[in-house]
Amino acid sequence: MRRIDIRTSSGEYPIILGKNIISQLKKYISDYDKILLLSNEDIGNIYFKRVLQELKDERIKVFTIPEGESFKNLETLSTIYDYMAKENFSRKSLIISLGGGVVCDIGGFVGATYMRGIDFIQIPTSLLAQVDASIGGKTGVDTQYGKNLIGAFKQPKAVFIDVSFLSTLPKEQFSSGMAEVIKHSLIIEDKEYFEFLKVKREKIISLDSDNLIEMIAKSCDIKREIVERDEFEKGDRALLNLGHTYGHSIEKLFNFKGMTHGEGVAKGIIFELELSKILNEIDEDRIEEIKDIFKSYGLDPNPIYYPEEIILEIMKKDKKNSFDKINFILFSKEMKVYRDSVEIKYILEVNNLFSPRYIKGIIDIGTNSCRLFLAQVFQGEEIKIEREISKDVEIVKLGEDVNKNGYLKKEAISRTVECLKRYKKKADSYGVKELVAFATSATRDSKNRDEFLNQVKEIGIDIKCISGDREAQLNFLGNSIVFEERILVLDIGGGSTEFTLGEKGEIEFVKSINIGAVRGTERFFSTQNYTDDTIEKCREWVKDMISEVKFLKNKNFTLVGVAGTATTQISVQKQMGVYDSSKVHMSEIRLEELRENLKLFLECSVEKRKHIVGLEEKRADVIIAGTIILITIMEELGVNKMIVSESDNLNGAMISKSI
């Protein structure tokens, strides 16, 4: 066990560091009338029992907050204040934060503000919190405009760093913490710590206790020395913000989801190194060396390009800036760090260095659903998806009745436009550089499509109507990322079904046929009349319509199903109360299992189908026709199983330079 004492103008407190040391906490909690043990739901489930058994203290009450940075806000604070007031916590009470950076920040802020301040102790469970959030007395919460905009300085009474907690830490969160560790090695002149992190990488990653303790102790000591010198960030403490101006900005652009704090900091450090290269001519080899150490610990240090108005606006809202100047931590030619404001032209020059890497958005406007896909891409000779950010789907039924009268209904247009407004807002919030939208059969075949296209254009989205063959090509292209063998991609949409056969990115055959879940429902089951007769008529219709693809029967290929009709079969089969893309993608389903799904659907009225676990309510009226089409196609092609893929026309469009 190690002890590091921090001495500030606010008082002195210890950092207790070791393995399995929680029992040492007892001697620090004897003088309080009540104790609140604060954590999030995930950490509480894992560690509350252990901590309570160690302490065996009836004064302790537990309280959990939701997991995630998005809950580090005033609303969450209010729930804690209300609970403490209701349970008669006083100025003689104590709060113990058990968790990662969010819990430590919130617990510290409660300590700083409840009854104008009570004592608090930090028990950080993540590496990031152990080397950063739990030490130094910075507390705070986020607002919609930026990270940690509301906060206070208040030092804890003690910090207990137990490396045994790291054994349950997800890999990406350990990597996130390593970004702050690497940051510490860069802000000191002695490069011995940086070399230690390079040499001991394998032992550190394997969670060797001795090396973890040595590493964390060094990081804590670096932060201790800076905090003691500048407790309230009037000078040198700002050096701890290395990487954070850009890092906090990109975290905010990612809505604190899908981008860890550590990855943001790593990208921010590289951004500041590139600024320093322009301003101070630092060595390119040193930048590459720092990139390499980030990569070796599982971090992507490459910054992302954003349109200049977006990156500048969000950087200016960072709390470290004032007088409309944007402050960065820079490196001198000798690699010493210092703080300075930087002219906009240099910021934009560095931002432009990363223009091949950006956020792209794809919108697919189908007959039944409207989908949005956001991803981080890298554009070289080809476009590659580096990170999937989000996929959203809404059932808008744009093609409702279009098969009957050839027109898009006004209410259907209105529903879809409102959906697209939400998608545009989300794309803008992520800083999308390129937003591509395409529409398929319902829009393409309607007589009043210009009315719809013009309304959408007014909200800043241009839609391209694509042919069924092009949609099929995009589906195949999306799946060529995933499959190396010969595949037949089957996309049963609302108004049309696409067949694409090929191997290793080379297409052999494409066919789009006007059969689909909505079209079939309107043609045979308009009153939800699922009789043996109507079902057989639907099957005969499908058999007749797919005559041109029957030559594929018994050919050598893997059948790949994409889009809602296919993915719904898996979510129903696995009874997914909450749709889980990771459990759907690349799942296999057999013909007899599809027949069981169809039997389940047919046993229920449309109202009861809306409550089938795994079946989205708005698909309840068209899923039977879609399933009949799917089963009939598989029977006619002599296929008894299908792989369901989520890598579809959205993915294909994402890696295409043009639609």
Strand content: 15-25%
Biggest sheet details: 7 strands, mixed
> What is the end-to-end distance?
61 Å
Q: Would you tell me the structural class of the helices and strands?
A: alpha/beta
The residue fraction in helices comes out at: 40-55%
Number of helices: 26
**Mean pLDDT across all residues, rounded?**
91
Task: Write up this protein.
- By secondary structure, this protein is α/β, with parallel strands linked by helices.
- The protein contains 26 helices and 22 strands.
- It has a seven-stranded mixed β-sheet with strand order 1-2-9-6-5-3-4, sandwiched between helices. A six-stranded mixed β-sheet has the order 19-18-17-20-22-21, with helices on both faces.
- The radius of gyration is 29 Å and the shape is elongated.
- The mean pLDDT is 91.
Topology:
Layout: E1 2-8, E2 11-18, E3 35-40, H1 41-55, E4 60-65, H2 74-86, E5 94-99, H3 101-113, E6 119-124, H4 127-133, E7 138-143, E8 146-153, E9 158-162, H5 171-187, H6 192-199, H7 201-205, H8 209-229, H9 244-253, H10 261-280, H11 284-296, H12 308-316, E10 326-331, E11 337-342, H13 344-353, E12 357-365, E13 369-379, E14 383-395, H14 402-405, H15 410-429, E15 434-439, H16 441-445, H17 449-458, E16 463-465, H18 468-480, E17 487-492, E18 497-503, E19 506-513, H19 517-524, H20 532-545, E20 558-562, H21 563-573, H22 581-584, E21 587-590, H23 591-602, H24 606-609, H25 623-637, E22 641-644, H26 649-654
Parallel strand pairs: 2-9, 3-4, 3-5, 5-6, 6-9, 12-15, 15-16, 17-20, 20-22
Antiparallel strand pairs: 1-2, 7-8, 10-11, 12-13, 13-14, 17-18, 18-19, 21-22
Helix pairs in contact: 3-4, 4-5, 4-8, 5-10, 9-10, 10-11, 10-13, 19-25, 20-25, 21-25, 23-25
